[in-house]
């Protein structure tokens, strides 16, 4: 897959932190366009849809132009960041009141890059796998990138984790 087909959606609480660093370890996507959710105004899900003037819908219109979405998130408390979760919650808007846009998600592909520094989180992928199943998106997997320096086993594991992404994203430069 060429990097022009993919877009990175970053959901860390800091823009230049370990998650950004993890992305730079994947040559096939390091030059891909990136959206930093922290820079956008994306409000929590609202049953009354009183948040429609924030940046979410415009972001989705941009994202649907790409075949593959790379969600990049730190592991916070064994799960994705709240920034990323808020973004995913808002996909419900599409199913409820923007069905034409929701249909455009079908057939897309999703890969996850997760930065962590204590231990591999159990069950982390289940949410992404099930979400993709529900939305008709092909789930490509998750690369878990250890951001610490002390645990040699986890550092070694990064090699395998990076290989997962290398199989999917070909290096084009
Ligand atoms: C609120 C919070 C919760 C965290 N929870 C976990 C965790 O459950 N498991 C883990 O391995 N690391 C955990 N960490 C460490 C981060 O996953 C790790 O430092 C990651 O590389 C941070 O990426 P960032 O710099 O993009 O935020 C946590 C960090 C924070 C700030």
Number of helices: 7
| Residue fraction in strands | 15-25%
Low-confidence stretches are: none
CATH superfamily: Flavodoxin domain
CATH third-level topology = Rossmann fold
Q: Domain count, please report it.
A: 1
Major sheet details: 5 strands, parallel
Amino- and carboxy-terminal Cα gap: 13 Å
Nearest-integer average pLDDT: 95
- Unique ligands: flavin mononucleotide
- CATH architecture classification: 3-Layer(aba) Sandwich
Shape: globular
H/E topology pattern: EHEHEHHHEHEH
Class from secondary-structure proportions: alpha/beta
Query: In CATH's first tier, which class applies?
Result: Alpha Beta
Helical amount among residues, as a percent range?
Answer: 25-40%
Radius of gyration: 16 Å
Total beta-strand segments = 5
Major beta sheet, strand line-up: 2-1-3-4-5
Oligomerization state = single chain
What does this 3D model show about the protein?
This protein has 173 residues and is α/β, with parallel strands linked by helices. The chain has one domain: Flavodoxin domain (Rossmann fold, 3-Layer(aba) Sandwich). The protein is 37% helix and 18% strand. It has helices at residues 18-24, 56-63, 82-89, 91-97, 99-103, 124-135, 152-168; strands at 6-10, 34-36, 68-74, 109-116, 138-146. The protein has a five-stranded parallel beta sheet with strand order 2-1-3-4-5. Strand 4 (109-116), helix 6 and strand 5 (138-146) form a beta-alpha-beta unit. It starts with 5 loop residues before the first strand and ends in a 5-residue tail after the last helix. The model has no long low-confidence stretch (mean pLDDT 95). Residues 12-14, 17-19, 74-78, 115-119, 121, 147 line the site of flavin mononucleotide.
């Amino acid at each position: 897959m060429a990097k022009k087909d993919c877009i990175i959606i970053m959901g860390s609480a800091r823009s230049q932190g370990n998650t950004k660093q993890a992305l730079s370890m994947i040559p096939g996507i390091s030059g891909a366009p990136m959206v930093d959710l922290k820079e956008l105004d994306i409000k929590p899900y609202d049953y009354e849809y009183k948040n429609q003037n924030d940046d979410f819908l415009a972001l989705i219109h941009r994202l649907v132009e790409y075949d593959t979405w790379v969600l990049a998130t730190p592991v916070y408390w064994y799960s994705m960041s709240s920034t990323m979760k808020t973004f995913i919650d808002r996909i419900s808007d599409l199913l409820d009141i923007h069905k034409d846009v929701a249909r455009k998600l079908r057939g897309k592909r999703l890969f996850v890059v997760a930065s962590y520094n204590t231990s591999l989180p159990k069950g982390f992928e289940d949410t992404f796998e099930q979400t993709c199943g529900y939305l008709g998106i092909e789930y490509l997997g998750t690369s878990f990138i250890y951001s610490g320096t002390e645990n040699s086993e986890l550092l070694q594991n990064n090699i395998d984790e990076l290989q997962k992404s290398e199989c999917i994203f070909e290096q084009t430069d």
